Amino acid sequence: MSKPSWAEVIRIIGGTTILAVALVAVPPVVRALKSEAPDTEAWFFGPASARWLITEYADLECPYCRAYTPELKRWVSQQPDVKLKWHHFPLQDHGFAAEREARLVECAGQLGGAEAFWTAIDQVLLHSRGNGQGLAAEIEVGTIPSDTLRNCADTDRDVASQVFQQRSDAQHRGIVATPTLEITDTLTGHSMRLEGAVDEVTLLSAMDGLAAQGGSQGEPVQ
User: Please, are residues 74 and 136 in contact by the beta-carbon 8 Å criterion?
Assistant: First the structure.
């Protein structure tokens, strides 16, 4: 089946752009966002110089994130001009387990860089029991000693503050559910928000729309 055109998936209602997409589960909601420069200090998955930035607001105890994030990473890994950024949004319903897992992941990044950060993401999603029940087994992140990682998560106030700040930022931006994605064209700063487990057709269509907003400043991914 060919990729739908932008005109076929966009309809204008009262001046607000809404992307209508049918999914098996709850349909994602898409909102146009104000222009905003991406965070250049994030732990990116994919080439740091990529034009397209996908920010995933996610909770490590969220069962939907657990199922969706590996699929999203696989898709991003096949795109030469797309990078992925994780934004911690531990939900209050999932208690301290979600927050502590976010701290573990952040500590892994602090201790081992982007590769360790994303390895920790994979490990937590693999071993999380979900819905606030915490880890079923200890995570292993390369050569980082497990006790060093645990100690950092339990005692490093800067890491705890960073996770808290990311959650606060997500709430301030109106994020209410996980996973939520923001697609940003780093050439223009224009962004679009998509709520739910978004498929690749929707991602490509969103990028087409953002590219159209930017005029002739390059081509969207194929």
Answer: no
Spatial separation of the C-alpha atoms in residues 222 and 207, rounded to whole Å:
10
> What length is written for the chain?
222
Mean pLDDT along residues 118-131? 96
| Distant-in-sequence, close-in-space partners of 222: CB < 8 Å, separation ≥ 6 | 204
Whether the upstream peptide bond of residue 145 has omega within 30° of 0, thus cis, is no
Structure tokens at 54: 């996908």
pLDDT band, very low/low/confident/very high, at 130 (cuts 50, 70, 90): very high
How many other CB atoms are found less than 10 A from the CB of residue 191?
A: 21
24: nearest Cα among 195, 197, 202: 197
Q: Reduced to 3 states, what is the DSSP secondary structure of residue 99?
A: helix
pLDDT digits (tens, 9 = 90+) for 48-97: 999 999 999 999 999 999 999 999 999 999 999 999 999 999 999 999 99
SS3 192: strand
The pTM (predicted TM-score) of the whole model is 0.79
What's the Cα-to-Cα distance from 167 to each of 4, 45, 155, 178, 180, rounded to whole Å? 35, 20, 19, 12, 13
DSSP one-letter string for 114-138: HHHHHHHHHHHHHHB-STT--BSS-
Token digits of residue 65? 């994130």
Q: What is the structure's pLDDT at 216?
A: 47
Q: Which domains does the chain have, with CATH numbers?
A: 34-193 (3.40.30.10)
User: In degrees, to the nearest 5, what angle opens at C-alpha 193 toward C-alphas 103 and 75?
Assistant: 70
Q: pLDDT digit string (tens) for 161-181? A: 999 999 999 999 999 999 999
